[in-house]
Amino acid sequence: MNEKKQLLQSLKFPVLFVVIIWLIKIAEIVLNTDFIYLGLYPLKWRGLFGILTAPLIHADLRHLFDNSIPVLILSTALFYFYKPVAYRVFFMTWIITGILVWFGGRSSYHIGASGLIYGFASFLFFSGIIRNSINLMAISLLVVFLYGGLVWGILPYDYKISWESHMFGALTGLCLAIVYRHRGPPPPAQDIHDENDESGDDDY
């Protein structure tokens, strides 16, 4: 599969996800209603369903727009470079982050896809470091360059945002990078050559 076709394939699910969250917001506007009650409310049975629905709900159009672009870019990178485990990482980030927020979040409705954004950014960044791959290190640096400011989002400086989703999303991404440290893009040919050279040196 050439790179262009691979990129188009990698865009399919991320674009579908973004279309869904926009359709949900459009439905809210058309019906003149608010779906915040579908958000995640920690330690309350009524908020347990929000583990599944919270990333789909956004407070307003600005909130939705701010999340749409990074989630599209980062999830596309996930599907492009980690195709064999992309769906697992996507949905495990979704569910695990939600569960952690349900147990450890403030008594408030938590909504939005920002937990996914932090999870994907963390996964891509730490996977590049853990695997010590030149290609993945480049991805990690790109993530830091584009979304380095995300680190401030895990601090409780603004209680109007769900910093808990950010923090738990980042932790989930780190853990998944460790779990799937042997899955993903193969190392560059130069890395393989160097490893073979080192193995040959051990025989002397």
Using the coordinates shown, work out and report the CATH topology. Answer: Rhomboid-like fold
Sequence of secondary-structure elements = HHHHHHHHH
Instruction: Provide the low-confidence segments as ranges.
Output: 190-204
CATH superfamily, by name, is Rhomboid-like
Second CATH tier, the architecture: Up-down Bundle
Query: What is the strand content?
Result: under 5%
**Helical amount:** 55-70%
CATH class: Mainly Alpha
Number of strands: 0
Largest sheet: none
Q: Give the overall shape, derived from the CA principal axes.
A: globular
The number of domains: 1
Report the average pLDDT across residues.
Answer: 85
Tally the helices: 9
Care to give the gist of this entry?
With 204 residues, the chain is an all-alpha fold. The protein contains nine helices and no strands.
Please tell me about this protein's structure.
This protein has 204 residues and is an all-alpha fold. It has one domain (3-184): Rhomboid-like fold. Helices cover 69% and strands 0% of the residues. Helix 4 packs parallel to helix 6. The longest helix has 29 residues, at 3-31. The chain is globular and about 50 Å long. It starts with a helix and ends with a helix.
Q: Which characteristics define this entry?
A:
single chain; 204 residues; mainly alpha; Rhomboid-like fold; disordered C terminus
